[in-house]
UniProtKB/TrEMBL annotation:
Family annotation (NCBIfam families): HDIG
Stretches with biased composition (Low complexity): 1-11
Domain HD: 46-156
Region (Disordered): 1-23
A Pfam entry, by short name: HD
Protein name, as recorded: HD domain-containing protein
Top-rank lineage group of the source organism: Bacteria
Length: 205
């Protein structure tokens, strides 16, 4: 079992492990939710690429005998930025808002917690129990706009775009450190060197 612990996670109760008795929206239903929440075209392209990376992780894990629901992972990734359009127009935290909306419309707590926690995972990095959420988080960290990049390149871009103060730069650095920790955990879990991997939705720059 791959189980490492972040140094700065909070002592919150963890989300429940995956359940198989709650329906998961299929591809068509996810795309209908994009329409309903008026997702912008560039965010649709980004979400498709993130979903392709997350699906790769899920399928590899399943092929190796792990109990992973590939469609649950894909749906959570397709919907991870569902509240981005709203947040751009009206403000607010897009991950928390999106997570709340997706809990309301899908009723699936694992799917929705993948949305809520796609920026930073405040719990232990435990792929046995929280594969879907960590797959969404990691995939998002490997996609800049709609192109697959390394974690280092993705965060260089984030610091350039958002790192206006020392505090923000420190938060971005902590998020990058976690992303690298998650990458190491996935690399061990599915036995693929993910840092070198280009997946199918883009090319390494
Ligand atoms: Fe996001």
């Amino acid at each position: 079992m791959t189980h490492t612990t972040t140094t700065n996670h909070w002592t919150l109760p963890e989300p429940p492990p995956s359940r198989t008795d709650i329906p998961v929206p299929d591809e068509e239903q996810c795309l209908a939710l994009w329409d309903r929440f008026e997702m912008l075209d560039n965010i649709r392209r980004h979400s498709t690429c993130v979903a392709d990376v997350a699906t790769f992780l899920a399928q590899k894990a399943k092929d190796q005998g792990h109990d992973v629901d590939v469609q649950l992972v894909r749906a959570s990734a397709l919907l991870h930025d569902i509240a981005k359009t709203y947040a751009i127009l009206h403000g607010g935290n897009h991950s928390q808002l999106g997570g709340a909306w997706m809990q309301e419309v899908t009723g699936n707590p694992v799917l929705s917690s993948g949305v809520t926690h796609h920026v930073y995972w405040p719990f232990a990095i435990d792929l046995e129990n929280h594969f879907p959420q960590l797959a969404v988080l990691y995939a998002d960290k490997r996609v800049r706009h709609d192109t697959v990049v390394s974690i280092a390149d993705r965060f260089e871009d984030l610091i350039e775009r958002y790192g206006s103060t020392e505090y923000i730069r420190r938060r971005i650095q902590a998020t990058m450190d976690q992303a690298l920790e998650v990458e190491t955990a996935f690399t061990r879990f599915i036995k693929v060197d993910l840092n070198e991997h280009t997946f199918d939705c883009g090319r390494m720059e």
